[in-house]
Amino acid sequence: SDLSTESELCYPHLGNSSCRRIVRSHSVSVLLHIILSSISVLTVTLNLLVIISISHFRKLHTPTNFLLLSLAVSDFSVGFVWVFMIFLIDGCWFLGAGWCVFRTVFSYISTAASIGTVVLISVDRYVVVCDPMHYQTKVTKNRANICIVLCWVGSTVFHTVMLKDNIEYPGGFDYCAGGCTVYLPPFAGVIDLIFSFIIPFSIIVVLYVRVFMVAVSQAQAMRSHVTVVTLQSSLKVNRSELKAARALGVVVVVFLLCLTPLYIVLLTTGFGVKNLSSYIFVAGLFYFNSLLNPVIYVFLYPWFRKCVKCVLSLQILKSGSSEANIL
């Protein structure tokens, strides 16, 4: 019996002060490693394709695409968070307290940046659909880039402050050797819930409901042919924008579906995660969203499919390829 308990410890030689391993059958363990590794590799690769495409092709340098670029960077980062998830799969953390803190802070910042970016995407679509006349003047490349930088700096500062205790005392909150425990004081947990979920969620939903209502009323107007000839050109402009709003609407809805379960679990457990497996599942679902975004672009954006071909066939290495008309 001593052997069986020993095999369940992360550090058998430390006896009772060691954390317990999650014991799974070999086949289940291998399968989990394969699944998580595949998600990680795919997330990193597909988002890297988005990053290269938007950065490389001049024609894609629009405010909306810069927001997609920011989302791809945060999703790309989450691809590396998956690697740490793989290390934690057996419930044992062997990389030391420093890496534990890095994993914690890094995953919080990259997920917060993606939440912030989705809010910016909703604002962008709201302005283009609800105030198309002033879109060009209101939403400029510079303004989009400033918002993106603020979003990342804000996420970094916010979570560095929130996770201050973890950063100051690496490993100080682990109950046992081989743990990687995140400590958020209760008030910090509430603040995080408000700023990382309630406020962004409300903004996204309110703006997208407005966008959807305008889209529906425009579609009805087009159907009833009441449109005067002078309206034709403005409606044409909006038709492509409405398509873009619809595509980004899919991104936003999928994002909310992946994000909400995590916060429901955090709320119902009062932020002290009692059931690790349910938490890992909902956190995994939230991180999985980072793989879904580029997959959505593949299906909804012809330009992204063209870019992927150019990147994979190495045509982007040719001189002048950045000027190609990819749209």
TrEMBL record:
It comes from the Eukaryota. PROSITE patterns: G_PROTEIN_RECEP_F1_1, G_PROTEIN_RECEP_F1_2. The chain crosses the membrane at residues 30-54, 66-89, 101-123, 144-163, 193-216, 244-266, 278-300. It is found in: Cell membrane. One of its GO terms (molecular function) is trace-amine receptor activity. GO terms for cellular component: plasma membrane. The keyword Transmembrane helix applies. Keywords: Cell membrane, G-protein coupled receptor, Membrane, Receptor, Transducer, Transmembrane, Transmembrane helix. It is a multi-pass membrane protein. Its main location: membrane. This is G-protein coupled receptors family 1 profile domain-containing protein.
